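ERR on first pass: missing label on line 2. Operator R.T. fixed the label and resubmitted. Corrected input:
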Amino acid sequence: MNNLVVLPILLPLITGVIAILFFRKVSIQRFVSVVGLLLTAAASTVLIVQVAQSGIQTLNMGGWTPPYGIVLVADMVSALLVVAASIIALACLLYAFRSVNKEREEHHFYPFFHFLIAGVNGSFLTGDIFNLFVSFELMLISSYALIVLGGTERQLQETIKYVLINIVSSALFVASIGFLYSITGTLNMADLSVRIAEIGQSGVVTLIAVLFLIVFSIKAGLFLFFWLSGSYAAPPAVVTALFAGLLTKVGLYAIVRTFTLIFYHDPDFFHALIGWMAGATMILGVIGAISYRDVNKILIYNVIAGVGFVAFGMASASRTALEGLLFYMLHDMLIKTLLFLLGGALIAVAGTSKLDNMGGLIKRYPMLGWMFFISALALAGIPPFSGFPGKLLLFEGGLQTGLYGLTGIAVLSSLLMLYSVLRIFIQAFWGEPPAGVVRRPYPVNGLLIPAGILFIFIIVMGVGAEGMFQLTSRAGDILLHPNLYIDAVLKE
Amino acid sequence: MEILMCVAVGILFAVAVFLILSRSLLRIVLGMSILTHGVHLLLITMSRLKTGAPPLLGEQAESYVDPLPQALILTSIVINFGLTAFFFVLSYRSYLKLKTDDMEEVRGRPYE
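pass 2 clean. output:
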């Protein structure tokens, strides 16, 4: 029992509520938001220290022992993800101060922002499958509001599609929970795992697991990503950055959690299935990334390819791959947010998202250019930066389990990811500015400072991989041995 | 009884899918609403429809029906109610702005 576990959910909720009260006073909203997020970040840091020192922390809500009450669980996996989410939220918030217009700020931008963070942290920390659904909905409803806020024609069109696809997948989620409840009679994840182990892997369990896989794949953009490329291009850059860093990763976390904790009894079938989906996602993602000549589209398809990499780690599921998966996922959250923040700054200074109308920006914006260059290298996994250790472990795990084809696809798509992002760099920063367009200098430093927070973490994670690895390897332990989680939750 | 309910849920799902795949936005919203009805009926069916008193301890009955799915459905109903309201207003706003409710036309429209 540790009351600290609830703080990463509670603090953003309270902050959001306070921000609603001051909806006309933007400066107070900003102040409250920063203080709230700093407290959240501090709470999650203390949480991860406690998890590192004394193992899995649980909190039985209302004092009801599991499986009867709702339980919040912070193990190394969720604690790491919550810390990463706080860092991303802080960077995006500071970026939003500079980039979101006053009208949006006055119409509850910050409350929705904080409710989204509460939903994300809730999804990471919950130990109850129906509570996971509720956290998903909290996160999604805030994301609907953030994506449509502003109400341009494009946002309206894309929001209709985004809302519809998410409502259908949420309905499927509730249906799957109903099926699961009918065969096990419980909703607590640890207890579900015990009951499923008693029943054994019958056909019904496999069917339900596939249903869950479909639901979470729609949320994560794993193979079923047809909705993602349109929706993510519609809102302002900072919202896209927040979505790219957090939303798809919550779906991935749900896949990782359910398939290592609950449905781990028939690995051959599921790992093959997830492997096929991962391969297709990586291939289709990089095809999208190299075929567009638009900054937003290229980065969005890189998000999809990154989802494929995490799923590739699930498919091989050896010890090395699971450790690498978590390392890569943390890196992926940070780097995708960073790239969208830098991409947003790039679009702001160039006045367009079309690559053909850009050129010669390195002379006027050297800082932006080199930060973008280093981020591109980190995305591809060039050694001193954070993309390398995770990918190395993923490839090693893939080769250990004999997935040579899939590992080949992953290596190839890393190269193509590098090509797609470096093409932005070459086209936008090298060469001569397009003729006939005179642009006033844009005060870009205000946008680069928040991006710098993430940038520092990208470098530190790469250089200090040894220290990070101690944390991710303990998370790998939990993913590999579901009993650790079950014992921590159902202990008496 | 469960079989009857399952057939009913199946019909609701089929109607919902048919409506969601149609072109008019209003029919899509209706389809979504019917889909959630189907899901809620499915939840109550999946907890076995055995006979028993309503889950109130004042009833002093021998056996009660399962209270948990009712709580789940209640949660899901209000969530979907919020979503439906949001979706309706979204459709209204997009009708005002885009001047059409035909999704094929919306899709073919170039941005900006």
